[in-house]
Amino acid sequence: IPRNVQQVVQLNQLLVDKFYEVFGKNQEEPDDDPTNDLVVPVIPTFGNNDILPHNIFDRGPNTWTRRYLDIWRTFIPEVQKHSFDQGGWFYVEVIPNHLAVVSLNSLYFFNSNSAVDGCAAKSEPGYRQLDWLRIQLQYLRDRNMKAILTGHVPPARTDNKRNWDETCWQKYTLWMHQYRDVIAGTLYGHMNTDHFIVQDFEEVDDNVANGYEIIQSSKRGVVAADEPKFGIQSATSYLKDLRDSWTKLPKPQANKAHKASEMFKSIRDSSDEARPDWEIAELIEEYLHEGAEILKKGKKHKGKHDPDDYEAEIGGRFAERFSISHVSPSVVPNYFPTIRVYEYNITGLDRKLPYAAEDQYAMSSQEGFEESDEQDLEEEITEDGDLEAERKKKKKKPKKHRFTVPKPPSKSAPPGPAYSPQSLTLLGFVQYYANLTRINNDFFGDDAEQQRWKDGKHNGKKPFDEDRKPHPTNFTYEVLYDTRSDKVYKLKDLTTRSYLRLAQRIAGVKPRKSDVQMSDAVDEIEGHEAFDADQEQVDVDATRKKHKKKGKKDHKKKSRRENKPWYTFVRRAFVHTVDPDEIEEEFGP
Questions:
Q1: What pLDDT sits at residue 470?
Q2: Checking DSSP bridges between strand 338-344 and strand 478-482, what pairing results, if any?
């Protein structure tokens, strides 16, 4: 049954009230500042189901920005309310003078939003939002702060599915590259499936990188990820597309992995027991990095690619050619309800000014900045109109820069928290879920594998009572997996290079004779005993030559072991609602 405007507004107000119940302060002396009523900051963002008509969000100010400015008044700082009214974007300094969380209105980038047209024209809200983001990120860089970007619709981009208009994706990805020293991570939702996206900066168009707009829309010939077609089958196709794209990622070399492993064993055996393993690993990594640089300088490639220069291919030691977007599964389920809790490095954050003093500084600084921000945007739109008039007069006119390219990091700046472990680096997350089948308690039997929420699993079974009286248990969330201890993903942190290794393992790239997946020396240090796809790929390849005549049963076991990261990724994407056997049948080689 379609909802009306009143129902949409009331539901969002209900959620705000629930946040108050959980996170509200018990203030004996209430003040006039509504943003001071919660013990933790809450940063909402517009979703395509928060508005009517569904997906359609026109340029602001509009009815919806004004309605939500009232509903979310507790969450939006006073100094940011003008930005929110203009288009639904804003940010909050969740750790004053250290970390800001930026709430993007991703509906202005969304292919299914027919009220807007990409991010190329300066009159478009998508263009204005990205220009606002550029100014804010530069402002945060100048203050030596970091940022986490949040939004609803993620920048999914495969051959068969593109969520964003191409002009928006191109500029956003360029922004991610230029502000890689500032951005600590990006968090999205919308697609219901638990996964991550690897953005390759080499896919940014050369014209865009040089400040020229590309007038190109991706709305034709692709499926936006929330259309009715995006069901199980479409999600299946999308996940396969992701894996296929990851097979094309640069591949680490076996010789470097072997050298790291041998060095670790040698140093550990000859060193004083007081030297910790992490220090040994750090020495090895530094040695290998310096050795690669010396090798790079001493060789003359003569136009040929050096197959050993893996770090050069991925953008250096910290994989700065790529960025990662985290996509969480949904709270209101297509599958099971979920909640995700991230953990980040707080080293050094205890040495800061009192919150009141910092808030005062941040607000006074930002007020003046907002005014200049708006003036700059208005001037650019005026200039855009002048350029159009000039084009009519002169048919042949030299190509001009159409937008301001963000400044890159300083050459002396260290890698940002998304690339190198440091303060505010995302360390991991715990993925919680609620098994509704078990909670509803409608059927006999306790076999967890029999209790997946999927049509047909309980075919022929009788409920507890013929009159269908419910017998639910208490609604509780339980841990689905924890990246800090997970023995399949083995993410020591959520930095880009850690995810790059995981993507390579999920892709299950078949190794060449002199080019196999690199084992992580730190994995050995931490003593993981679980399936190591990096090394297992080598073992499987060797085993194939020795045992060519094994039966189907052994082959199936080998396939499971070889594809364990991939099967686990898919199973988690569907929040454990699809049986492992079905996953192997649908997603197997």
A1: 72
A2: unpaired
Burial degree of 320 (CB within 10 A; 0-12, 13-18, 19+): buried
How many residues comprise the chain? 589
Residue among 174, 155, 171, 151 at smallest CA distance from 163: 155
pLDDT tens-digit map of 538-550: 343 444 444 444 5
Q: How far apart are CA 394 and CA 387, in angstroms?
A: 10
Q: Does the pTM of the predicted model rise above 0.90? A: no
The pairs formed by 541-544 with CB atoms below 8 angstroms and a separation of 24 or more are 541/510, 541/511, 541/516
Torsion sign (Cα): 366, 372, 377, 380: negative
> Is the separation of the CB atoms in 77 and 71 below 8 Å?
no
Q: Is 518:534 a contact under the CB 8 Å cutoff?
A: yes
Q: What is the full DSSP assignment across 1-57?
A: ----HHHHHHHHHHHHHHHHHHHB---SS--S-GGGSBSS-------TTSSSSTT--
Q: Kindly report, residue by residue over 143-177, the tens digit of the pLDDT.
A: 999 999 999 999 999 998 999 999 999 999 999 99
Contact 504, 246 (CB under 8 A): yes
For residue 514, CA distances in Å to 37, 41, 327 come to 60, 51, 35
At residue 70, the pLDDT reads 97
Question: Partners of 149 in the beta sheet?
Answer: 102, 186
- For residue range 1-31, list pLDDT tens digits in order: 789 999 999 999 999 999 999 999 876 666 6
Q: What are phi and psi of 445, to 5 degrees?
A: 100, 145
Q: Residue 208 is which amino acid?
A: V
Q: How many helices (H) and strands (E) does the chain have?
A: 18, 9
Q: How far apart are CA 287 and CA 265, in angstroms?
A: 15
Question: Can you read off the two tokens belonging to residue 299?
Answer: 């060789």
Q: Where do the structural domains in the chain lie, given as residue ranges?
A: 5-249+323-336+348-423, 435-476
The β-bridge relationship of strands 426-433 and 478-482 is antiparallel
Query: What SS3 state is found at 447?
Result: coil
Q: 292 or 100: which carries more pLDDT confidence? A: 100
